Amino acid sequence: MRFRGRVLKDGKFWVIEVPILFAYTQGFTRKEAYEMIVDLVETMVDKPGFKAEVYPGKDGWFELGANDVGSLFALMLQRQRRKNGLTLADMAKRLGAKSRNAYARYEKGTSVPTIEKLGELLKAVSPNEEFVLIISES
Q1: Quick one: 48 and 99 in the same domain?
Q2: Please, what sign has the CA dihedral across residues 31, 32, 37, 39?
Q3: Alpha-carbon span 52 to 107, nearest angstrom
Q4: 43 & 85 share domain
């Protein structure tokens, strides 16, 4: 699984973003911008052996993948939860769980959700947003 991102020239910089992760950075060249987004995501995950990778696409689009999908999903859930100002306890309540650990295991990357569970988690963490899966062009 990969997340879609965009890289655009803005003055003397290349601005790069992965919106679903709220990850934004820049570089002096497109190549440097790709390196910077990889470094940013790897730093945010902060897990030994975790490696992110950029798959350049067309018209400024790219995809970001990783060798550990569970950790990438964990980062996405964590960033979405924080964006919405929610605590782990809030998430447990929204999911009808008795313990926040039931949800926290997804944010820690110790459990990788099925596609159905991922839909449930995203609906709980961002109820006013729609998430769209697309087929990779690369």
Answers
A1: no
A2: positive
A3: 17
A4: no
Mean pLDDT by 10 residues, the chain (138 residues): 95 96 96 98 96 96 94 93 92 88 88 88 88 74
The answer as to whether 132 is a domain residue is no
**116 falls within a domain:** yes
Tokens at 85, concatenated: 């100002």
Q: Where are the beta strands (DSSP E) in the chain?
A: 3-10, 13-18, 23-27, 52-56, 61-66
Residues 13 and 43 in one domain: yes
**Number of helices followed by number of strands (H, E) in the chain:** 5, 5
Query: Can you tell me the distance from the alpha carbon of 53 to that of 124, in angstroms, rounded to the nearest whole number?
Result: 28
Give the model's pLDDT for residue 78: 94
pLDDT at 1: 85
Q: What is the pLDDT of residue 100?
A: 84
